[in-house]
Amino acid sequence: MAASSDEARTRVFLSYSRKDSDFVIRLAAELDARGYLVDFDQSSRDPNNVITGISAEDLWWIRLQEMIALADVVLFVVSPDSIRSAICDEEIAFAQNLKKRVIPVLCREIDFAKAPPRLSALNIKVKFAGGDAVVSADQLALLAAAVDQDVVWLRGGTRLLAAAQRWDAGGRAEDALLRGVEHRDAEEWAVRRPGSAPELPELVLEFLSASRAAEAKRKTIGELEKARYLELVGVMRPFLEEELKIREAMPVSSHHGIAEEDRVEIAMLRGLLHLDNKWHPEPPRHLASTGAVDGYAEMFRFPCCGQIVKEFRNNSRELASQFRPGGCVPVPEEIQYQYNESSNPFHSILIRRYRSLSAGQDDA
Q1: Measured distance CA(360)–CA(354) in Å, rounded
Q2: Cys bridge to 271: 121, 200, 277, 323, which one at CB 3.0-4.6 A?
Q3: In the chain, where the domains are located
Q4: Angle, vertex CA 189, rays to CA 185 and CA 194, nearest 5
Q5: Is 95 in contact with 12 (CB distance < 8 Å)?
Q6: Is residue 212 within 8 Å of residue 183, measured between CB atoms?
Q7: pLDDT at 1
Q8: Is the CATH code 3.40.50.10140 the one for domain 7-148?
């Protein structure tokens, strides 16, 4: 059969113990006759083992992983030998990690009390056990129905359709669209549509398309905001650096409240300059307001680490900055800002005047 026609067939991988080879070969032949593309290590339908099976030059386990990855469905042939097989267990684990559908098929009776956890979690409905495990027509029909009807996929479609209907009934508001992990899972679900499944409803397609556009918009806005932030940092950093130099050069006030206010302002400047790359991941909560002795400050506590800080904001209860040298966790490396002075920087008239005045005072 040509490769192009094989691509349209439901691909089934058989995981089994070599002691069940006779049954597996018969089962593969029956499934092939029903139009499935059956793949397993001893497959002979493709003599050169290009499309199915393992060739003489293949790396055995690498080829098995490739066969599982290509499969639409994995059938685990259950027998006393396969449930004890470390290779079968690895095959099923690999398939489940790829989120493949795994359907157990009973070939020979087993003691379910001794079954490994991965098998115990599966529900065995298709049973060929009995005698020499004859591939009966009734059980084969039951197996074909299980292969054709992806119950998990259909349930996902039901949930997605319900979400699309809520979005439509609510005026198609953007905040009702899928985002993040939900959007990614929905896109993967749509790609996995079985060949036997009906076409996706128009409403679901519109819902996915709108969610995709909204995700792209959010990503674009995030990139624009980051670019704007970096440009502003480049322009404002010289101002903040000069301010920090002035404050650090000033003598410490003998008044406790003023000295504390100066210390807090210097800490805030260092936080704005990201000199320590620390922050508090949770916003602070207001605790109290202080009086004249402490400089009319607002007291805040960060719930993430319990640290208490002061802010001097004219009795305003605006939240304290989460970026400060005393932050409890490092800023993620992906967004840590490394300042590189521009070769053609913005030249501030204010800073130039300040520097010229400072130079004149120094010369006096």
Answers
A1: 10
A2: 323
A3: 7-148, 152-220, 234-363
A4: 165
A5: no
A6: yes
A7: 40
A8: yes
**How confident is the model at residue 216, as a pLDDT?**
92
- Report the pLDDT value the prediction gives residue 263, as an integer from 0 to 100: 82
Residue type, 363: D
pLDDT along the chain (364 residues), means of 10: 61 92 92 91 78 82 89 91 90 87 90 79 82 75 86 81 91 93 91 77 93 92 79 77 85 84 80 75 87 77 89 66 79 66 70 76 47
Please give the Cα distance from 143 to 31 (Å, whole number): 9
**What's the Rg (C-alpha) of the chain?**
33
pLDDT for position 2: 46
Task: Identify the helix (H) or strand (E) that includes residue 102.
Answer: strand 101-106
CA of residue 98 relative to chain centroid, distance: 14
Q: Which residues pair with 309 in a beta bridge?
A: 300
Burial 222-246 (b: 16+ CB within 10 A, else e): eeeeeeeeeeeeeeebbeeebbbee
How many helical (H) and strand (E) elements, i.e. helices and strands, does the chain have?
Answer: 11, 10
